[in-house]
TrEMBL record:
Entry's family note: Belongs to the ABC transporter superfamily.
A GO term for molecular function: ATP hydrolysis activity
Predominant localisation class: membrane
PANTHER family (alphabetical): BLL2173 PROTEIN, MALTODEXTRIN IMPORT ATP-BINDING PROTEIN MSMX
Source species: Pleomorphomonas carboxyditropha
UniProt name for this protein: Sugar ABC transporter ATP-binding protein
A Pfam family that the UniProt record links to this protein: TOBE_2
CDD domains noted in UniProt: ABC_MalK_N
GO biological process: carbohydrate transport
InterPro entries: AAA+_ATPase, ABC_transporter-like_ATP-bd, ABC_transporter-like_CS, ABC_transpr_MalK-like, ABC_transpr_MalK/UgpC-like, Mo/tungstate-bd_C_term_dom, NA-bd_OB-fold, P-loop_NTPase
Residue span, ABC transporter domain: 4-234
GO cellular component: ATP-binding cassette (ABC) transporter complex, substrate-binding subunit-containing
UniProtKB keywords: ATP-binding, Nucleotide-binding, Transport
Length: 362
């Protein structure tokens, strides 16, 4: 196994700079997810680690070894692609053992490793089939098996679930998590799906425009996002980010919304009277009630989504659109007058000018 270290990595294509001075430490055995919107640079960063893209400047280290100028075959990595990349004329057995064959591994050893890996991935009955005879989920498991038999220092996953339907994505996601628990191999996983990021990652790296916005444990990023971008990118349904002004008086500190509603702020926030803020509150931290309520935001229901296990209520509070989410089933109809009350202890306060989080000082 090996750690992965990026030191001041930059990548340009002509005049276009796509990775900007990225430094990152991925510990040995860690499952790290690179997440961000399209064009954020996550796939380019993965290709740089793999050696499929050369850095313009900076250093790439794997297992404490400088691999910046080494080709992929000398980096001791294995990659699982979005498109499976299986040889159509080869059986599952041949696909899984092909890299070992090229490396000159004896046939009995290849057979043993392929059989062990096939059993782990429940592919034993499929070893003599061609890729065209497999489902999408089975093909992806073969692709993973081909990587596993090589016993690399680092696994690299490039959006491996994006071609699968929702049910299969959930199933294969669980298989990947289980594999990591068994093998404890350092893994770097690229996705734009925040659910994959939150459920698989021991470390999440949020990228935007080729820069690292924040890196850390999933709950750390969810509960303490450094800016409005990270807050808005993680979480389903998305966090409510509402423009407000701070009001500071002898009565305390408040956030005053565009519709005139006023919500108390933790006095530990360092905000000035009249300061423009962004008030962040996640939908699951908004309580919904009928009629007026002190400290709440009067609103009217716009629409309701009911998935059976969850209810999501979208409401209008003057110019504001506020989302609330909860588990219990309630009889709520569009047009109904309601009051939304944020959990004050769960609020996130950001400076509107910089979009950066304002910490509550103890």
């Amino acid at each position: 196994m090996g750690s992965v270290t990026l030191n001041n990595v930059t990548k340009t294509f002509g005049q276009l700079s796509v990775i900007h001075d990225v430094s990152l430490q991925i510990e040995e055995g860690e499952f790290c997810v690179l997440v961000g919107p399209s064009g954020s640079g996550k796939s380019t960063l993965l290709r740089i680690i793999a050696g499929l893209e050369a850095v313009s400047s900076g250093q790439v280290m794997i297992g404490g070894r400088d691999v910046t100028t080494l080709p992929p075959k000398h980096r001791d990595i294995a990659m699982v692609f979005q498109t499976y990349a299986l040889y159509p004329q080869m059986t599952v057995r041949e696909n899984m053992g092909f890299a070992l064959k090229l490396a000159g591994v004896p046939k009995p050893e290849i057979a043993r490793k392929v059989a062990e890996t096939a059993e782990m991935l429940e592919l034993g009955a499929l070893l003599d089939r061609l890729p065209k005879e497999l489902s999408g989920g089975q093909r992806q498991r073969v692709s993973m098996g081909r990587a596993i038999v090589r016993n690399p220092s680092v696994f690299l996953f490039d959006e491996p679930l994006s071609n699968l339907d929702a049910k299969l994505r959930s199933q294969v996601r669980g298989e990947i998590a289980d594999l990591h628990r068994r093998l404890s191999t350092t893994s770097v996983y690229v996705t734009h799906d925040q659910i994959e990021a939150m459920t698989l990652g021991q470390k999440i790296v949020v990228l935007k425009d080729g820069r690292v916005e924040q890196a850390g444990a999933p709950l750390e990023l969810y509960e303490k996002p450094v800016n409005t971008f990270v807050a808005g990118f993680l979480g389903t349904p998305s966090i409510n980010l509402l423009r407000t002004k701070a009001q500071v008086s002898e009565e305390g500190k408040f956030a005053v919304f565009e519709n005139g509603a006023k919500v108390r702020l933790d006095p530990a926030y360092e905000v000035g009277n009249g300061q423009d803020l962004v008030y962040g509150i996640r939908p699951e931290h908004v309580r919904l009630s009928g009629g007026a309520e002190a400290g709440g935001i009067p609103a009217r229901v716009h629409s309701v989504e009911n998935t059976g296990s969850d209810m999501v209520v979208f409401s209008d509070a003057g110019p504001l659109r506020i989302t609330a989410a909860f588990k219990e089933q309630r009889n709520i109809a569009p047009g109904e007058a309601i009051t939304l009350t944020p959990d004050l202890a769960k609020a996130h306060i950001f400076d509107a000018a910089t979009s950066k989080r304002i910490p509550a000082l103890s």
